[in-house]
Amino acid sequence: MLDLKLIRENLDAVRWAIQVKNVPLDLDKLLALDSQMRAAKQKSEQLAAQRRRNSEQFPTASPQEKAALSEVSKKLATDAKVVGEELVLLEADLNELMLLVPNIPDKSAPVGPDAQSNVVVGTWGAPPDFDFPVKDHVDLAEKNDWVDLKRVTEICGSRTYCLKNRLAQLEFVLLSLAMQRMVSEGFALLTVPSIAREAAFIGTGHFPVGRPNVYELPTDGLFLAGTAEIVLNSLHAGEIIESLEKPILYAGVSPCFRREAGSAGRDVRGLLRVHQFYKVEQYVICENSVETSRYWHERLLKIATGIVESLELPYRIIECSTGDMGAGKVRMHDIEVWVPSTQTYRETHSCSTLHDWQARRANIRYRDGSRKVQFVHTLNNTALATPRILVPLLENKQTADGRVRLPPVLRPCFNGDEYL
């Protein structure tokens, strides 16, 4: 959500953001509602002033004058009620459109309609050159009795999985590795629920547009979250934080759930696109400063690449285009890791800067150095998500005999074994 004053004063920039982010928003309709609402508020204030003046005359008025004043009072009360009801309707309609207003992208973001316009801005490591036929992660896992996909799918439906034996152990070793890294970076480690109320999803911007991808628990008025960011962002909703001289740093750990609506036929094999997964999420609340946000964006990105490098996985960094970054984001970088079986890089992390877009939705504010109340800036990035990271890990580390070599950083958790 953007400030209405900012929208009015930067119409060209907002129209451009709507266009380059492919947002279905009629800005002229929003502006008309804004104008009607301001006129209605002015009318309401005028009626309130008239009612006060009318009341002030009542004590000293004659009986005949009091009767006339009473009639005026009734008329003013009726008019005020009508205007009040109009304001409620206008506010609801305006708020519905305000939730669709996109953030204005950073000037460095590539302009384009979708992921085809993304730009590679960095690479690390070289894809392995195998001298034997490459197996995909499913074949490797099944050969070593590390998964049961057939039985669990019959029970739980498509895009579900069951890890077994050493692979199940590896999943939690990887999550622990990410948690340890976040603690070493000064982040507070939080395990958070996977269920939240609608307001939390609106606060992050996942609703209303992303609603089709979310599982709903209608009996309880709750929804299943696809990232810990949803709960972390709401921990301070409605608050005024006394100081952000030191930013709030959270590492949220949770099971995550996504319906994957609209992705039929994509990545149906194995562990790439599943309905339930685990994630360690980086989340930052900092002062309202473009420079501070830029610093934390780079640091969140560096933490994530450091984790990937510790696993010895070749990756590239993508600067996401305006049409691929999402409505609320100013900047977004993806980390994509090499997957040998498909001979392509696949996204494993997304690093996002949102400035005060989420903070306005969730009403998160702070007092700056001069004690002025301002909206905070928020950022987030994946630290590690599993089972997705298992796909490149198994495939890049495979051997000719179907084993998987463990990166040295993981071997202490497996009694020093070189292989999984």
SSE inventory with pairings:
Elements: H1 4-9, H2 11-20, H3 27-57, H4 63-98, E1 119-124, H5 137-143, H6 149-156, H7 165-184, E2 188-191, E3 195-196, H8 198-204, E4 216-217, E5 222-224, H9 229-234, E6 240-241, E7 248-257, E8 276-286, H10 290-310, E9 315-319, E10 331-339, E11 344-353, H11 357-362, E12 365-367, E13 373-375, E14 377-386, H12 390-396
Parallel strand pairs: 2-7, 6-12
Antiparallel strand pairs: 1-9, 3-5, 4-5, 7-8, 8-14, 9-10, 10-11, 11-14, 12-13
Helix pairs in contact: 3-4, 5-12
Word description of this protein:
Helix 5 packs across helix 12 (390-396). The longest helix is centred in the N-terminal third of the chain and has 36 residues, at 63-98. The chain contains twelve helices and 14 strands. The chain is an alpha+beta fold and 420 residues long. Helices cover 39% and strands 19% of the residues. The chain has two domains: 26-98, Helix Hairpins, CATH 1.10.287.40; 115-414, Bira Bifunctional Protein, Domain 2 (BirA Bifunctional Protein, domain 2, 2-Layer Sandwich). Strands 1-9-10-11-14-8-7-2 form an eight-stranded mixed beta sheet. The protein has helices at 4-9, 11-20, 27-57, 63-98, 137-143, 149-156, 165-184, 198-204, 229-234, 290-310, 357-362, 390-396, and strands spanning 119-124, 188-191, 195-196, 216-217, 222-224, 240-241, 248-257, 276-286, 315-319, 331-339, 344-353, 365-367, 373-375, 377-386.
Question: How do you describe this structure in short?
Answer:
The chain has helices at residues 4-9, 11-20, 27-57, 63-98, 137-143, 149-156, 165-184, 198-204, 229-234, 290-310, 357-362, 390-396; strands at residues 119-124, 188-191, 195-196, 216-217, 222-224, 240-241, 248-257, 276-286, 315-319, 331-339, 344-353, 365-367, 373-375, 377-386.
